[in-house]
């Protein structure tokens, strides 16, 4: 019986002009955003790879230089463009594209793409993720808001019940019907998405990204199930179809438009982060203190058993430079860690708030699987920073060991530059960061189960014939 | 007669609990949005105050020590002389170039959370400073701010549509249309009265919301040119509300049920506020993509290479920026080093600056192209105009950057000759250092950008109202 009901629902959807129009629009938007995004995505990927190898070329072809000058010239690290960012741009527009790795400073990533856009871009981010997170739930609402209330109003509910159809089967049949109708859109969407991914990332291997793609798909499916459950539940409880629609639309507006901003406000209030001014001032104050030169001197004199720095078998300059770096690195570590800690707390609070709005959970998971959330960004930033320290260390070592204090204008050459390996970065595997999304995962799972449960309960207990 | 209808409809509206509660909800949302915006402005002002205080303390300390040296109270080693031009220009007197929040910034956060509101001047390199950012969790930047601009653009139209969606169809469905028309009244009068009343209520609500916003945000009405800006903002809001109201009238003129009207209007709302901006953005940036910063970085690195290498050769004996580690020299070593490093930096800057300038021109061209697409969407036009009036648009930021650039040139012109001469500054010179004062754009300059947008919005509203009313005239009451 359930399957019969489901089949009938799907047939009705296929015949409904409004459903056909709405799904055509959704598919159209999806196709549009993917098509226009593919070219841009390919360009961004090749640009990033090219820039990364170019900066390496610049480094190797510096010519003869004092190693510390080379350390000041430094290299650039360019933020990777993940394969799935074609579908979900996440925070990519709001994190800098490149960071300058130079001596003495842990720089911040510069040039956020959003800064180069204008208000039009800020208002309308259009990716596959937007369509899935915002417009598909709207379609679900339109498909299910009159599932029960419509039957009541048309008088067909009475007929169904007089045939002895158990309410539970009716509810399940309706749910499967909506899911089936949705499937008519989701299957072509999935094909479109996969084709787009394949076209947009034909240089890399998509096989590595299969777990991420799978995770993303499951998250969105859970999100849709939650919305189906919610819509059916409201439809069963509402006094009229009109009331059902208004309630669901109001929730959709809250979920899609208001919740992300309100969650951001709340997380800022509960876990305030320092302003750029405060952050820089505090860091600068500690950096100014510098390292204890006298203690270092004494340690070296004792270690090498000499009377003064001039008698050291190594160049004090290199050791002093390294000591300065180490002091700076400690300060940077402490401050950036505490800043990122605050951001992490803000993010987890927003995940928790998805209890009121499932969009927050699916957005968090979608960005995480696409590799465009802050966890992925900060991991790259840390890797770049570690590379910077390694590079500077090799330079300082050279000064220490291969030059003397009296040497004016000591210069090294490509042999030294080559000693620093090329910067290589791999995306983390899913298992590395999944625990950070545990709240989003569990709340989204809860939403889908509770949504379905509520729908079942509403249909069987609350449905009245009047 | 119309007066009676107006009074009657007012009573009906007041009695409609859904509508009243919706209006109250929107009012609460407006209040929260404005409060939110003013919190952001307060935070910005706090930062600027702290920076100013720090600068004041620093420069005060500098003045004191210079006076002490000049009067002979203090003696300093030549390498630590606080009067050295390079120290003063680069560190002890380095000013903060500040752009205070715009006069109406609390009403529309706009893009101001993406741009810094101050630069700490860095005598060495302009480029280092200009790429700075305010610190914020990218997740929160992605969501955007819950400010009045967002509410007026996205949520307020819903109230307008709620007031207008059953203008004609409501009566028809309730059966009261036939009753009303059995009185000595024409259908046109009935509709006109209703439109008048509801339009009036809408206008009244708009004025009320905006006034309340101004009060909550604590806008300084006595500040120059604030009132004209507010006036234009109010006008824009009314035109925007008229656009949506016109849409409701037009949809009503099609013979339909209230429910169908509501669905159609909701669809239009979705399309205009959510879908259209995104689609326009996609099309615009596909036709004319944003110039690549990555390319810019590569170009900068390439342009600066030879000057860099030459400079590194010269600075090799100083370990680039550590004169204290260089082998012992005689005399004004610190002075030599400062001169040399600034000369090197200037040479690099000379080669790199053209790349940046070229990029800026490209970016401006691209943004102007995308801005043109604004005219296809009333929502985007409203948002852009609001940002401009509130002083939170990228135009104002660019205005600030230009002023900072010229101040930087002034600062360099003052200090570099003195650094090359290894001069020391006296206390009188320190008093006479160039000072930065942000010059706000005049109302005329802002209106130069807002007027076309306002015109575009007015054109859209006029079009919709015209079409709507003409369609309305074809409606016959007997359906």
Which band does the percent of strand residues of chain B land in?
under 5%
Instruction: Tell me the number of strands of chain A.
Output: 2
Low-confidence stretches of chain B: none
Beta-strand share of residues of chain A: under 5%
Spatial extent as radius of gyration of chain B: 30 Å
Alpha-carbon distance between the two ends of chain B: 23 Å
- What percentage of residues of chain B falls in helices of 4 or more residues? over 70%
Structural class of chain B: mainly alpha
Structural class of chain A: mainly alpha
Q: Which spans of chain A of ≥5 residues are poorly predicted at pLDDT below 50? A: none
Task: Give the biggest beta sheet of chain B.
Answer: 2 strands, antiparallel
Topology of this structure?
The complex is a heterodimer of chains A (466) and B (479).
Chain A: H1 2-15, H2 17-60, H3 67-73, E1 75-78, E2 98-101, H4 119-123, H5 128-144, H6 149-154, H7 156-162, H8 167-200, H9 210-237, H10 241-270, H11 276-289, H12 293-304, H13 316-352, H14 358-370, H15 374-402, H16 414-419, H17 430-433, H18 438-462
Antiparallel strand pairs in A: 1-2
Helix pairs in contact in A: 1-8, 2-5, 2-8, 3-15, 5-8, 5-9, 5-10, 8-9, 8-18, 9-10, 9-14, 9-18, 10-13, 11-13, 13-15, 14-18
Chain B: H1 2-15, H2 17-70, H3 85-92, E1 96-98, E2 118-120, H4 126-130, H5 138-143, H6 148-164, H7 169-174, H8 176-181, H9 187-217, H10 226-253, H11 258-287, H12 293-315, H13 333-373, H14 378-390, H15 394-420, H16 427-431, H17 443-473
Antiparallel strand pairs in B: 1-2
């Amino acid at each position: 019986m359930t399957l019969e009901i489901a089949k009938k629902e799907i047939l009705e959807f296929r015949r409904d002009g409004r459903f056909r129009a709405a799904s055509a629009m959704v598919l159209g938007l999806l196709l549009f955003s993917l098509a226009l995004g593919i070219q841009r995505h390919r360009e961004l990927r090749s640009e990033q790879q090219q820039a990364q190898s170019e900066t390496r070329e610049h480094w190797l072809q510096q010519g003869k230089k004092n190693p510390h000058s080379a350390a000041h010239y430094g290299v650039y690290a360019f933020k990777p463009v993940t394969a799935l960012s074609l579908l979900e741009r996440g925070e990519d527009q709001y994190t800098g594209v490149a960071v300058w790795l130079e001596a003495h400073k842990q720089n911040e990533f510069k040039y956020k793409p959003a800064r180069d856009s204008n208000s039009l871009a800020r208002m309308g981010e259009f990716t596959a993720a937007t369509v899935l997170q915002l417009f598909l739930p709207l379609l679900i609402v339109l498909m299910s808001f009159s599932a029960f209330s419509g039957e009541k109003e048309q008088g067909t509910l009475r007929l169904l019940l007089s045939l002895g159809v158990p309410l539970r089967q009716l509810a399940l049949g309706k749910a499967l019907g909506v899911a089936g109708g949705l499937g008519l859109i989701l299957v072509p969407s999935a094909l479109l998405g996969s084709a787009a991914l394949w076209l947009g990332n034909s240089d890399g291997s998509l096989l590595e990204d299969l777990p991420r793609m799978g995770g993303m798909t499951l998250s969105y499916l859970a999100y849709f199930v939650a919305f189906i459950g919610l819509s059916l539940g409201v439809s069963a409880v509402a006094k009229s179809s009109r009331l059902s629609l208004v309630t669901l639309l109001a929730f959709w507006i809250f979920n899609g438009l208001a919740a992300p901003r309100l969650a951001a406000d709340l997380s800022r209030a509960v876990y305030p982060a320092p302003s750029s001014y405060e952050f820089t001032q505090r860091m600068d104050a500690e950096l100014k203190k510098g390292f204890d030169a006298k203690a270092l001197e004494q340690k070296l004199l004792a270690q090498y058993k000499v009377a003064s720095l001039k008698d050291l078998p190594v160049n004090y300059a290199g050791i002093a430079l390294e000591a300065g770096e180490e002091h700076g690195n400690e300060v940077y570590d402490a401050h950036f860690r505490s800043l990122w800690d605050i951001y992490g707390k803000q993010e987890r609070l927003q995940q928790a708030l998805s209890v009121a709005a499932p969009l927050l959970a699916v957005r968090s998971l979608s960005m995480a699987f696409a590799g465009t959330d802050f966890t992925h960004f900060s991991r790259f930033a840390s890797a770049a920073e570690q590379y910077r320290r390694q590079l500077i260390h090799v330079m300082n070592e050279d000064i220490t060991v291969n030059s003397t204090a009296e040497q004016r204008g000591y210069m090294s050459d490509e042999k030294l530059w080559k000693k620093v390996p090329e910067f290589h970065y791999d995306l983390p595997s899913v298992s590395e960061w999944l625990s950070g999304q545990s709240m989003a995962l569990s709340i989204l799972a809860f939403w889908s189960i509770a949504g379905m449960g509520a729908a079942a309960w509403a249909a069987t207990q609350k449905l009245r014939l009047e | 007669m119309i007066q009676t209808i107006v009074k009657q409809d007012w009573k009906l509206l007041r009695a409609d609990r859904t509508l009243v509660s919706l209006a109250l909800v929107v009012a609460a949302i407006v209040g929260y949005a404005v409060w939110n915006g003013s919190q952001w402005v307060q935070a910005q002002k706090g930062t600027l105050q702290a920076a100013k205080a720090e600068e004041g303390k620093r420069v005060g300390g500098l003045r004191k020590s210079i006076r002490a040296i000049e009067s002979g109270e203090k003696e300093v080693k030549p390498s630590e002389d606080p009067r050295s031009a390079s120290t003063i220009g680069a560190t002890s007197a380095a000013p903060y170039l500040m752009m205070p929040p715009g006069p109406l910034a609390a009403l529309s956060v706009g893009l101001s959370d993406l741009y810094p509101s101050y630069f700490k001047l860095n005598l060495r390199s302009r480029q280092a400073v200009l790429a700075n950012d305010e610190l914020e969790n990218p997740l929160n930047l992605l969501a955007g701010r819950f400010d009045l601009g967002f509410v007026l653009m996205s949520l307020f139209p819903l109230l307008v549509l709620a007031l207008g969606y059953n203008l004609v169809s409501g009566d028809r469905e309730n059966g009261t249309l036939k009753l009303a028309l059995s009185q000595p009244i024409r259908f046109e009068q009935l509709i006109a009265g209703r439109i008048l009343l509801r339009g009036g209520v809408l206008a009244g609500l708009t004025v009320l919301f905006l006034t309340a916003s101004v009060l909550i945000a604590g806008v300084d009405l006595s500040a120059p040119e604030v009132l004209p800006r507010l006036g234009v903002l109010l006008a824009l809001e009314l035109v925007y509300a008229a656009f949506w109201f016109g849409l409701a009238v037009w949809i009503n003129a099609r013979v339909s049920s209230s429910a169908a009207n509501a669905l159609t209007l909701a669809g239009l709302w979705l399309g205009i506020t959510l879908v259209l901006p995104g689609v326009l953005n996609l099309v615009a940036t596909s036709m004319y993509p944003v110039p690549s910063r990555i390319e810019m970085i590569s170009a900068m690195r390439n342009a600066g290479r030879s000057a860099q290498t030459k400079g590194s050769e010269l600075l090799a004996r100083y370990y680039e920026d550590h004169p204290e580690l260089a082998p012992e020299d005689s005399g004004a070593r610190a002075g030599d080093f400062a001169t040399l490093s600034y000369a090197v930096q200037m040479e690099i800057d000379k080669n790199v600056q053209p790349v940046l300038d070229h990029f800026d021109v490209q970016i401006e061209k691209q943004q102007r192209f995308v801005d043109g697409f604004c005219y296809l969407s009333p929502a985007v036009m409203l948002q852009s105009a609001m940002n401009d009036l509130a002083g939170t648009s990228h135009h104002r930021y660019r205005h600030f950057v230009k002023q900072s650039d010229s101040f930087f040139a002034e600062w360099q012109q003052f200090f570099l000759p003195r650094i090359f001469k290894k001069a020391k500054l006296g206390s009188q010179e320190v008093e006479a250092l160039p000072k930065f004062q942000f010059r706000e754009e005049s109302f005329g300059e802002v209106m130069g950008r807002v007027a076309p947008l306002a015109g575009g919005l007015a054109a859209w509203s006029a079009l919709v109202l015209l079409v709507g009313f003409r369609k309305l005239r074809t409606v016959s009451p007997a359906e």
